Amino acid sequence: xxxxxxxxxxxxxxxxxxxxxxxxxxxxxxxxxxxxxxxxxxxxxxxxxxxxxxxxxxxxxxxxxxxxxxxxxxxxxxxxxxxxxxxxxxxxxxxxxxxxxxxxxxxxxxxxxxxxxxxxxxxxxxxxxxxxxxxxxxxxxxxxxxxxxxxxxxxxxxxxxxxxxxxxxxxxxxxxxxxxxxxxxxxxxxxxxxxxxxxxxxxxxxxxxxxxxxxxxxxxxxxxxxxxxxxxxxxxxxxxxxxxxxxxxxxxxxxxxxxxxxxxxxxxxxxxxxxxxxxxxxxxxxxxxxxxxxxxxxxxxxxxxxxxxxxxxxxxxxxxxxxxxxxxxxxxxxxxxxxxxxxxxxxxxxxxxxxxxxxxxxxxxxxxxxxxxxxxxxxxxxxxxxx
Length: 387
Hints:
The protein is 57% helix and 7% strand. By secondary structure, the chain is mainly α. The protein has a three-stranded antiparallel sheet with strand order 3-5-4, sandwiched between helices. A two-stranded antiparallel ribbon has the order 1-2. It contains 15 helices and five strands. Strand 4 and strand 5 form a beta hairpin. Helix 1 runs parallel beside helix 11. The longest helix is centred in the C-terminal third of the chain and has 38 residues, at 271-308.
């Protein structure tokens, strides 16, 4: 449905140029969204897929293992959309207590994303509602190190930004003027907590994501935080007990269409086409996450059986193996620290697992060697390769 522009243009100044900045109307859309039978069915399928994803804890013997890895996969994907070239292996290597090599900007950005997500979850667990204060706290962590650290971490912008183009006058899109950002974000916060708004949580998350991206309230990091906002809305409103739905891979695979639909909402008010795209992404992403979890369980079980077939020495080997299930890349010292076994025993266990083909050495060095549970990492890496 084309409602016309979902906002108005106000003259703003950026880089010494006067430019038309877009000021979005508050949510919810007017007139209300249309829900055809096909769209209602899509909503129901996405809701059911999300329910299956939330029940994944019943499938996994240790859900935190999956959550640990899946959060890091999402951090890599979301950061790739913003132009980083880090892989999941890069991040896991960077997180080692004795990381080989110096930190570099791309990996720092991804690591910041993980820290911001974990901080947000902790604060929600402490009772802080999903609010602008929380978004600012997460943003401060997101931009705490590396590129962007000089762009007012944790603060709504005080200057005009723009998207695309070498200069403001050539910009693809100019968000609201800086003096309107606080009011826009206050409107968005009210919408998130308005019990009278007529839409289910999934639709609310779809609407809020577009609004956040349109406001672009920070000087940097808006895309990453805007994608996190989706998962946090679903968790805050009780649809997910853990933040396990991440749409970055879906947006990455459909990047041109994603940006086209955001533009269409602003220009023509066609929220319905965006809603269809979003709900399709939720269904696909949730189904893929459940399938990934099933494949992980199958992989772990298969390799455990191979280890147990070794007989008496399998006990120590299993402890070592389980350490790699929790974190796919480790040193021998890490394994010893995690399991409590001696360094020589850990070294022997790692060597045996390497002979079995479960582990692979990454560095090729004789000292400070790093090992990876290769099949596990390959399974998680599907779609997470650098752009």
